[in-house]
Amino acid sequence: MSQPLTDSHHRVHRSLRISIVDKCDLRCTYCMPEDQHFLKREELMTREEIATIAKLFVERYGITKIRLTGGEPLVRPDAVDIVRDMAQLGVSLGLTTNAMTLDKHLDGLIAAGLKSINISLDTFDAQRFKTITRRDGFDKVHANILLALARGLRVKVNMVVMRGVNDDELLRFVELTRDHDVHVRFIEFMPFAGNHWGRERVYTFSEMLGHIGSVHSFEKLTDDPHSTAKAYRVADWPGTFAVISTVTEPFCGNCDRLRLTAEGKMRNCLFARTETDLLSALRRGEDIATLIEANVLAKHAMLGGLPPFKPESQEEVLHDLSERPMVSIGG
Ligand code: SAM
Ligand code: SF4
């Protein structure tokens, strides 16, 4: 009989994001600072440690959803094995990837039990891709999105929308939902250590809907109660799109997510400023259950205790951010 992980605001947590590596083969400006340092191999959770911790979350605490992320999960040599381990836990399993090397791993991932994949793409312009990610790769990523769809995976495409960078491409991404049964998610640009965030660079949820609505009429879809995204569909198009409005309309009230970094630190919020070192305790042979329960109980009501992302609180938000950039938290 599992014992649900409940925080002091009565939210029950069912979803765990596990970062399996902090390195990446891209260096997106909004995610990775230029001088990013990476963990040493021995600091990362091993495949066995990931399986042990994940099993505890599933069997003891009733976690039903696991998403593997990073850094770039597919740069880890045993990524497919880890996917297989997670699939065997019987959870709803997802993987978030930049898809740079997805073609090489796709057969293995599907055979390992992966059915659903989130792929990040912020532009359809190859030169702009290079500016945003500091690497070449548009053709590869684009081809791999089409390949994943052709192989029958459920595909979500994540686009971080930044004013003056790629906000002029929203309609091109919406058109993907006309051509494919794909779910496109527009993500408001969020503040993390070293990503040059500014409130003025956030292309907002309401601006996005206004922009799309000036060309297409779309309907609201029913959202899953714990969804971070507000979903829509252009009438009669096979795909759907959604907006993740963390900055202008946070959805913390029904958040059921917990996170584990690649070095085994547990975080109860994307914006948490404290974390619990599960891996060191596990390596010392200690029971990590009490640490997990205390971490969840301490979860803040909103945004990890940061002030709301209003223009007047911008300095405060930037000052209070955790030391971690997104690449080492795991999105
Ligand atoms: N490398 C993989 C990828 O890019 O999909 C997985 C890790 S990445 C950190 C996970 C997600 O976080 C990606 O969809 C990425 O676009 C998103 N992300 C990173 N930094 C962000 C930011 N500052 N604001 C909003 N989303 C961000
Ligand atoms: Fe790498 Fe993903 Fe971060 Fe881009 S968003 S730097 S691909 S981890």
Characteristic terms for this protein:
single chain, 331 residues, alpha/beta, TIM Barrel, 12-stranded mixed β-sheet, two-stranded antiparallel sheet, 11 helices, 14 strands, binds S-adenosylmethionine, binds iron/sulfur cluster
How are the secondary structure elements laid out?
Blueprint (H helix, E strand, L loop, with lengths): L4 E2 L5 E2 L1 E5 L27 H15 L3 E5 L9 H9 L4 E6 L4 H11 L3 E5 L5 H8 L4 H13 L3 E8 L8 H10 L3 E6 L16 H9 L4 E3 L9 E5 L5 E5 L12 E4 L4 E3 L8 E2 H6 L5 H9 L16 H7 L5 H4 L2
Parallel strand pairs: 3-4, 3-12, 4-5, 5-6, 6-7, 7-8, 8-11
Antiparallel strand pairs: 1-2, 9-10, 10-11, 12-13, 13-14
This protein binds S-adenosylmethionine (SAM) and iron/sulfur cluster (SF4).
S-adenosylmethionine binds next to strand 5, strand 7 and helix 11.
- Content-based structural category: alpha/beta
Gap between N and C termini? 30 Å
What is the CATH-assigned architecture of the domain at 5-157 and 255-329? Alpha-Beta Barrel
- Beta content: 15-25%
Rounded average pLDDT:
96
The major sheet is characterized as:
12 strands, mixed
Number of strands: 14
Pick out the low-confidence regions. Answer: none
CATH level 1 class label of the domain at 5-157 and 255-329: Alpha Beta
Ligand types? S-adenosylmethionine, iron/sulfur cluster
Helix content: 25-40%
Q: CATH topology of the domain at 5-157 and 255-329, what is it called?
A: TIM Barrel
Number of helical elements: 11
Sum up the overall morphology in one term: globular
